[in-house]
């Protein structure tokens, strides 16, 4: 029998970006918040300092900041005809654990969706006719860019985002992304410096008639006091962002940006090393009563609450709903049910550029969001009439790191090991840049999440089961965007060779082994129709009005952008409606 | 002294490399016999010689050291004896199925037992990799990398190759605190300046940056890291039966 | 406030001037040029002393002459050695840091910044302005190539608990105050991270404490993107003193890199 604790106003599952933002906003609104986090306490100053943090083996290879598969993993198959087997080791994506969640080891590439992205079905149907979306579960998000803009803007000021605005209140600005939605205010900080390969990418893209701009970056470029009064420091371009915490206070993360300003709040309580097992429901099933978790001493504890916020990683939010019986599980046979429906990923391809000895990329000088980007082939920024696919991706020359265990650029036709390989690594390491195609991912009926019938986690709960392969649409999209990236690469000066890799190439199945991105989306999507969404447009569950859901699990399909910016815009949108409407009068905010 | 003994194994490997150029390589094998009881943390002498000879096919000596010269076998030994080798970060609940390549590691083995079992089965007919000549070694490693023609029971040949190759690269390029990358060999080779990193004044310059590497435990005033790895080597690490 | 502090520095340098000149008559501490040239064979020294061009004996000799007070434009007005010593070891007045073995590019950039006013200092600005760019490079390389000697007068007295706090700030920073650790950027044991980041180990406590105050009040803001001001602003006077006294007590073992016959430990070759 679980120990029952005194009731709190709000219980928050997970202390990452969305969980801590929820705690801060709701605590300030007078709600007593209990945040439950499975991992350890940690802090940028005491836990992420150089040089110890700059340990590629420990953090990038052994993945010390990430979820531990023996405790928590999922099973995976490409299609429903296969038997799903456990993801025994981390690979394709890296969910976090511990205070700050995956927001600690992110790169800081901080984007907003395009206005048309948020109305994807309506937009494509209007412009090209419904048929272009045949066979896909593409749908609208249920709110517009203009509704989310104040929240994107606020999060930019939480992170001290750096960049060059391309659209300020409707006016196109030189040097920015001309395709972006209107910004109500400029980036809080100037853009990052550009390394030599990025300068070359910019010049070449410009000559080709494209519109290059500095990737929006949460690697802060000057001393900055954020919207909550927290102090961020300028980035040192140390080259240890992704998979590492930042000891310089230079990569915006949930600890420095939010935790530090809420930790002493009288309405804030954080419980570490506590694994939430399930959300408990009232007898009539219409509301949640709180959560049951295993605390740091291994005791099962019930924490009653008036409101439950699900702020775990996208995949684990869906898992929690499935094991708790929240909402209706998706049935791929009938297409009915919504929990687990519209799981999507990110479609990654890249061109590798090998320079001659006159170009020094020095790849170890880098930052997670050090990139020069074009958005000309993202979303519906280009005419899809005769292309046979929807969506797109940004193309970006990125210089994120030169970590030597992993960074072994070798030109095409180099052997995979041996003397020639060794020579090629040595010759190319300092003269190479990667151009990534960061492609969107549409939702299709055959890609989904449910519970595995066989395998269990360390708490005896069934594993989440992922059934996923790249949809045909995305294979075409990826080949197209990659061809554009390759053209730019070949047009750059001082290039000796170009090679490409396309994870979604025709004939290649999605593999859970090589790292691609930690951008798992969907499974508990947001929308305005209870038949096709788990939560209403405010992030509130249709079936249980006191459960609010956060994170990338809300995305109806995945964008051609990194998810942190969009999902934080949604988080602040939801919190706004909680603070200013729901909490005064708890009820369903939309009629089902 | 354990460290001296481990080095002795590798010295013999170097000798065998020469011996392998001439007929009568079996001579070398006899000379290894006395080294089978050396106090590695996890490996035995046979396994160490197998890994050293395979590692040196993967990263051979040129202007820069070979894998074994850079301490890769020492690194692998410590890794296999430690949490990683013993299955940390690896979900090992059954049932075990073959799976597809896209489903990743499905072997019912920790990395340590995979490598021990794999080597034992590869060499079960007493043909030792170290006794082959250079061309034969290369041919063997090529076949293993393709996973062809090997029946290693529940050890998938491709998984075994991938695991060893991953460990070899880690041993060559990881911070020297883990026992490999001796004298910053791997970092010197590519031009990586190490764990101490501060580049705001240089990131936008098209110029070489030939900073001598410094690891996490760099000893200031020298060109090497503190020897933190030997401290990890417990006196009596239990050996796992393969 | 800013003006007042600069004025104090100017007065200090003048009043110390005559005393140190006497000391400078004794050239016994001056490093042998042949020794400096030999040290350029060591990777780390060469990297430390390289600013724009790889240093050679001509550059070091030019650097030595500048240090002694000669320059194309009729002398800098004051020889470096007058205040910083022939051995580059400065003195404990808080105004004259040691320069021996300091990161060369960092020294060069300080001279550029003194000359342009980016680092305000009445005395150093006047000196740096009169040096050509080549002379700034030469004298920076000269000091960067010097071995760091031991000092026993770099530190003052401080309470043991305070000193321990300084060590903690240096190595792990403070989560409570949002202060990142000094070692993040200043290298193993504060021995610096050439070319941009100066060493702290063995530097004069008074000098480091004064610099932290200058960063904190914004008088000094000439590092890349002014990160030091952001850090110093979060430090109390006690924090500054603690960390300065801590680093003054750390021996700087960057004597310039040991010579090594073989590049690698190659067991097979032994």
Automatic annotation (TrEMBL), chain A:
Stretches the record annotates as Disordered: 166-190
Signal sequence range: none
Residue span(s) of domain FAD-binding: 7-45
Statement: the UniProt record of this protein carries the keyword Oxidoreductase: yes
Superkingdom per UniProt: Bacteria
Domain Glucose-methanol-choline oxidoreductase C-terminal: 446-571
Gene3D superfamilies referenced in this protein's UniProt entry, alphabetically: FAD/NAD(P)-binding domain
Matching Pfam families: FAD_binding_3, GMC_oxred_C
Keyword terms: FAD, Flavoprotein, Oxidoreductase
Molecular function per GO: FAD binding; oxidoreductase activity, acting on CH-OH group of donors
The family this protein is said to belong to: Belongs to the GMC oxidoreductase family.
Designated name of the protein: FAD-dependent oxidoreductase
From TrEMBL, chain B:
Keyword Signal (UniProt): yes
Pfam families: Gluconate_2-dh3
Region (Disordered), start-end ranges: 209-242
Signal found in the keyword field: yes
Signal peptide (residue range): 1-28
InterPro entries membership: Gluconate_2DH_su3, TAT_signal
UniProt keywords, alphabetically: Signal
Top-level division of the source organism's lineage: Bacteria
Name under which the protein is recorded: Gluconate 2-dehydrogenase subunit 3 family protein
Species whose genome carries this gene: Maritimibacter harenae
UniProtKB/TrEMBL annotation, chain C:
UniProt signal peptide: 1-24
This protein's record includes keyword Cell cycle: no
Domain Cytochrome c residue range list: 58-147, 168-251
PROSITE patterns: CYTC
Region (Disordered): 249-270
Database matches in Pfam families: Cytochrom_C
Gene3D superfamilies per the UniProt record, alphabetical: Cytochrome c-like domain
InterPro entries, per database record: Cyt_c-like_dom (IPR009056), Cyt_c-like_dom_sf (IPR036909), Cytochrome_c_Oxidase_Subunit (IPR050597)
GO molecular function, one term: electron transfer activity
Entry keywords, A to Z: Heme, Iron, Metal-binding, Signal
UniProt keyword annotation of Signal present: yes
PANTHER family: BLL4483 PROTEIN, CBB3-TYPE CYTOCHROME C OXIDASE SUBUNIT FIXP
Name of the protein in its database record: C-type cytochrome
Organism: Maritimibacter harenae
């Amino acid at each position: 029998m679980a120990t029952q604790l005194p009731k709190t106003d709000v219980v928050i599952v997970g202390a990452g970006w969305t969980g801590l933002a929820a705690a801060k906003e709701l605590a300030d609104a007078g709600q007593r918040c209990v945040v439950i986090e499975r991992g350890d306490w940690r802090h940028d100053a005491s836990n992420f300092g150089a040089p110890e943090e700059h340990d590629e083996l420990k953090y990038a290879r052994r993945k010390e900041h990430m979820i531990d598969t023996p405790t928590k993993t999922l099973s995976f198959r490409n299609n429903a005809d296969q038997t799903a087997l456990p993801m025994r080791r981390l690979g394709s994506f890296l969910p976090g654990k511990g205070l700050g969640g995956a927001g600690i080891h992110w790169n800081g590439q901080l984007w907003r969706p395009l206005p048309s992205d948020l109305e994807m079905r309506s937009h494509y149907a209007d412009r090209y006719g419904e048929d272009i979306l045949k066979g896909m579960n593409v749908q609208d998000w249920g709110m517009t860019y203009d509704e989310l803009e104040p929240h994107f803007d606020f999060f930019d000021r939480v992170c001290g985002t750096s960049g060059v605005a391309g659209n300020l209140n409707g006016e196109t600005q030189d040097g920015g992304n001309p395709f972006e939605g209107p910004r109500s205010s400029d980036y809080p900080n100037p853009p990052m410096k550009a390394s030599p390969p990025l300068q070359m990418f910019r010049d070449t893209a410009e000559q080709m008639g494209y519109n290059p701009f500095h990737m929006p970056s949460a690697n802060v470029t000057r001393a900055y006091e954020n919207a909550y009064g927290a102090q961020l420091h300028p980035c040192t371009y140390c080259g240890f962002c992704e998979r590492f915490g930042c000891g310089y206070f230079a990569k915006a993360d949930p600890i420095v940006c939010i935790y530090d300003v809420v930790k002493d709040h009288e309405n804030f309580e954080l419980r570490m090393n506590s694994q939430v097992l399930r959300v408990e429901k009232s007898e009539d099933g219409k509301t949640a009563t709180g959560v049951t978790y295993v605390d740091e001493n291994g005791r099962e504890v019930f924490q009653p609450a008036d409101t439950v916020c699900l702020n775990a990683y996208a995949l684990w939010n869906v898992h929690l709903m499935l094991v708790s019986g929240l909402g209706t599980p998706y049935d791929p046979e009938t297409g009915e049910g919504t929990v687990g429906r519209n799981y999507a990923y990110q479609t990654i391809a890249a061109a590798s550029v090998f320079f001659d000895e006159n170009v020094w990329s020095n790849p170890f000088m880098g930052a997670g969001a050090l990139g020069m980007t074009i958005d000309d082939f993202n979303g519906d920024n280009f005419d899809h009439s005769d292309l046979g696919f929807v969506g797109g991706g940004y193309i970006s020359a990125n210089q994120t790191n030169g970590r030597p265990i992993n960074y072994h650029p070798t030109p095409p036709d180099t052997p995979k090991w041996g003397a020639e390989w060794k020579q090629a690594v040595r010759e190319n390491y300092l003269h190479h840049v990667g151009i990534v195609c960061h492609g969107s991912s549409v939702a299709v009926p055959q890609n989904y999440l449910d519970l595995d019938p066989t395998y269990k986690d360390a708490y005896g709960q069934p594993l989440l089961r992922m059934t996923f392969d790249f949809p045909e649409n995305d294979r075409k999209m990826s080949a197209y965007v990659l061809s554009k990236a390759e053209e730019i690469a070949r047009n750059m000066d001082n290039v000796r060779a170009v090679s490409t890799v396309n994870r979604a190439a025709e004939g290649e199945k999605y593999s859970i082994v090589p790292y691609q991105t930690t951008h798992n989306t969907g499974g508990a999507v947001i929308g305005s129709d209870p038949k096709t969404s788990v939560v209403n447009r405010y992030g509130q569950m249709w079936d249980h009005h006191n459960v609010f859901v956060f994170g990338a699990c809300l995305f109806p399909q995945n964008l051609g952008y990194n998810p942190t910016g969009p999902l934080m815009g949604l988080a602040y949108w939801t919190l706004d409606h909680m603070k200013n409407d729901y909490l005064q009068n708890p009820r369903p905010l939309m009629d089902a | 002294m354990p460290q001296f003994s481990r080095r002795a194994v590798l010295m013999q490997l170097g000798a065998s490399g020469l011996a392998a150029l001439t007929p009568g390589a079996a001579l070398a094998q006899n000379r290894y016999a006395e080294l089978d009881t050396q106090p590695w943390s996890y490996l035995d002498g046979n396994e160490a010689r197998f890994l050293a000879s395979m590692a040196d096919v993967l990263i051979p000596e040129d202007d820069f050291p070979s894998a074994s010269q850079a301490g890769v076998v020492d690194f692998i030994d410590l890794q296999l004896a430690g949490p990683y080798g013993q299955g940390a970060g690896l979900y090992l609940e059954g049932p075990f199925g073959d799976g597809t390549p896209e489903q990743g590691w499905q072997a019912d083995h920790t990395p340590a037992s995979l490598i021990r079992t794999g080597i034992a089965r590869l060499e079960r007919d007493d043909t030792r990799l170290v006794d082959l000549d250079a061309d034969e070694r290369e041919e063997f490693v090529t076949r293993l990398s393709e996973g062809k023609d090997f029946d290693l029971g529940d050890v998938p040949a491709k998984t075994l190759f991938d695991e060893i190759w991953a460990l070899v690269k880690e041993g060559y390029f990881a911070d020297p605190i883990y026992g490999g990358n001796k004298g910053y060999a791997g970092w010197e080779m590519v031009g990586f300046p190490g764990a101490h990193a501060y580049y705001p004044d240089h990131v936008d310059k098209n110029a070489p940056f030939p900073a001598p590497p410094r690891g996490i435990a760099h000893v200031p005033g020298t060109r090497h890291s503190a020897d933190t790895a030997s401290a990890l080597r417990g006196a009596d690490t239990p050996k796992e039966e393969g | 406030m800013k003006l007042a502090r600069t004025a104090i520095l100017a007065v200090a340098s003048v009043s110390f001037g005559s005393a140190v000149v006497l000391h400078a008559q004794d050239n016994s501490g001056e490093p042998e040029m042949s020794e400096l040239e030999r040290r350029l064979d060591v990777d780390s020294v060469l990297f430390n002393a390289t600013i724009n061009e790889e240093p050679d004996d001509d550059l070091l000799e030019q650097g030595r002459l500048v240090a002694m007070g000669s320059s194309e434009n009729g002398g800098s007005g004051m020889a470096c050695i007058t205040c910083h010593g022939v051995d580059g070891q400065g003195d404990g007045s808080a105004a004259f840091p040691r320069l021996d073995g300091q990161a060369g590019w960092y020294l060069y950039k300080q001279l550029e910044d003194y000359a342009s006013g980016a680092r305000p200092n009445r005395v150093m600005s006047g000196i740096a302005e009169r040096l050509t760019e080549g002379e700034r490079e030469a004298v920076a390389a000269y000091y960067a190539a010097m071995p760091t000697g031991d000092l026993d007068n770099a530190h003052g007295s401080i309470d043991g608990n305070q000193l321990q706090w300084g060590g903690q700030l240096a190595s792990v920073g403070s989560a409570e105050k949002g202060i990142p650790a000094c070692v993040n950027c200043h290298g193993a044991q504060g021995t610096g991270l050439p070319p941009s980041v100066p060493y702290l180990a063995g530097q004069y406590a008074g000098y480091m404490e004064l610099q932290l105050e200058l960063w904190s009040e914004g008088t000094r803001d000439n590092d890349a993107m002014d990160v030091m001001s952001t850090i110093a602003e979060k430090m109390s006077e006690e924090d500054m003193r603690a960390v300065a006294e801590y680093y003054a007590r750390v021996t700087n073992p960057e004597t310039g890199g040991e010579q090594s016959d073989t590049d690698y430990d190659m067991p097979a070759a032994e």
